[in-house]
Specification:
The chain is of the alpha+beta class. It is built from twelve helices and twelve strands.
Length: 381
């Protein structure tokens, strides 16, 4: 098998619901990062073998293979194909894995992986609004559970004895870290500004400065009257896109590129679909064993903050250093554009690794239906 690297990674700012990116069609938003990827690397887009694009709600503006239409919107040659992947919130992380597998096997040499979601235009749950995606046999198997992620997040909090204070402290820290990173310019080199009819969007919009346990205490539980999960300790509904260039070290050198990270291993696993969001725990163990890397060797973790209870349960089970988990903030502060989030998190993580000389980074993402991806990368320079 061939060695595989990520040679470049870019993302849009993550826009808040009905914010600065809400007027942009998802194909056009994807085109922004595709064009920026080509510009920053200096590659001729015609050398790209495929574009693998994550998107969750594939209806309306995001229907009809958004990956292909993103390629066309970017003005890339018509000869370049595109396909769209849906593994719920891990869609673009899975897109990266598929891209790596294509290059690693020798079937392709240069693949772009990424994803998009404009939740302002295609609301959460839109894809199942006109039908029932689970089916009677699934409901029968799981005692007619509604497969509501908020209820799953509540169950996780209860199982791991996570109080509302625990969750709100973690959420306030997410905003604090994200604000500090933004102020330090940590995101500037990875973000591509987006020009809209209303102006230019150049920074993540979801950060709420001054968020505290006291301010979060004013919010009502969202899923259970006596619950601990609310809007402030849950991921934000967001708009955004990201793209990564995947190739071999040899091809990167031929193209005059310096790889950012080497892909070490990827893993995907299924877990209890009622708890639903605990998959990152076994996925982390699985990917570390595949890579033969110890948890203590990893210098940064990106554990998607779908709800605060998810990374807190992950921390409790793995014993990872909390200081290394989402050091630049996470989805609670920076947003969660569903199908784009896997690529956004990877972009954020590998730039952080490069600028801080961190050898290993691990990303993991909980997903609807009880699956999870985990990916381990190593600094290439």
């Amino acid at each position: 098998m061939r060695e595989v690297v990520i040679a470049e990674a870019v993302r849009t700012p993550v826009g808040k619901r009905n914010g600065g990116l809400s007027s942009v069609h998802p194909a056009d938003l994807s085109a922004v990062v595709l064009a920026a990827l080509a510009e920053r690397t200096g590659i001729d887009p015609g050398i790209v073998d495929d574009v693998i694009w994550g998107c969750v709600s594939q209806v309306g503006d995001q229907s009809s293979n958004i990956g292909r239409y993103s390629v066309l919107a970017a003005g890339w040659p018509e000869s370049i194909p595109g396909t769209t992947v849906n593994r719920a919130c891990g869609s673009s992380q899975q897109a990266l894995d598929f891209a790596v597998q294509a290059v690693m096997s020798g079937q392709q040499d240069v693949v772009v992986a990424g994803g998009v979601e404009v939740m302002s235009r295609v609301p959460l749950g839109a894809a199942k609004a006109s039908g029932q995606p689970y089916g009677p046999k699934v409901f029968e198997r799981y005692d007619n559970f509604s497969f509501n992620q908020g209820l799953s997040a509540e169950a996780i909090a209860q199982k791991w004895a996570l109080t509302r204070t625990h969750l709100d402290e973690f959420s306030a820290l997410s905003h604090e870290r994200a604000a500090a990173a933004q102020d330090d310019g940590a995101f500037e080199s990875q973000i591509v500004s987006v020009t809209t009819d209303s102006g230019v969007v150049s920074a993540d919009e979801g950060i709420r400065r001054g968020t505290s346990v006291e301010t979060l205490a004013k919010l009502k539980p969202a899923f259970a009257d006596d619950g601990v999960i609310h809007a402030g300790n849950s991921s934000q509904i967001s708009d955004g896109a990201a793209a990564l260039l995947v190739t071999t070290p040899e091809r990167a050198r031929q193209l005059g590129l310096t790889p950012i990270v080497r892909y070490c291993a990827g893993a995907v696993t299924g877990s209890d679909p009622v708890l639903m969001l605990t998959g990152p725990i076994p996925a982390t163990d699985k990917v570390l064993k595949k890579a033969r890397v110890d948890l203590n060797e990893v210098g940064v973790f990106e554990v998607n903050e779908a709800f605060a209870s998810v990374p807190l349960a992950w921390l409790a089970e793995t014993g990872a250093d909390p200081a290394l988990v989402n050091p630049l903030g996470g989805a609670i502060a920076l947003g969660h554009p569903l199908g784009g989030s896997g690529a956004v998190l990877m972009t954020r993580m590998i730039h952080h690794m490069r600028y801080n000389g961190i050898q290993y980074g691990l990303q993991t993402m909980c997903e609807g239906g009880g699956t999870a991806n985990a990916t381990l990368v190593e600094l290439a320079v």
